[in-house]
Amino acid sequence: MASLNRVILVGNLTNDPELRYTQNGTARTRFQIAVNRRWRDRDGNLQEEATFIPIVVWGSQAESCVNFLTKGRQVAVEGRLRIYTFQPEEGEPRKVTEVVASNVVFLGSRKEGAPAESEAVSSQPAEAETAAGGDEEVPF
What is the mean pLDDT of residues 65-76? Predict the structure, then answer.
């Protein structure tokens, strides 16, 4: 039986992206976006709630995100949902839910002083990128 794990979100960054490198040199960027929902309740009052979603981006796309994204910037993210559990040294096991991005589109205005490059960045997932030869750029 076929399976599908696909997420598409549009929201605003709640913090600046954080870039790190794995031991083998692969770039990984993490940031969080807020996705807002508005509706009217039974009495007609406008209600609003925000859902905060952690995003992880790999490879050359991760480096582009750090160059172009800052807190408050609107982005569209396409990827897959990943849920895992880990055991901290002290305490109960913790469950983490995040979106592993395969495509990030920068919306709105870019960060001041940033070079004017393509505002849409996509790449293969980290596993495929590593197998395909590393840090090759996706042609646009």
Answer: 95
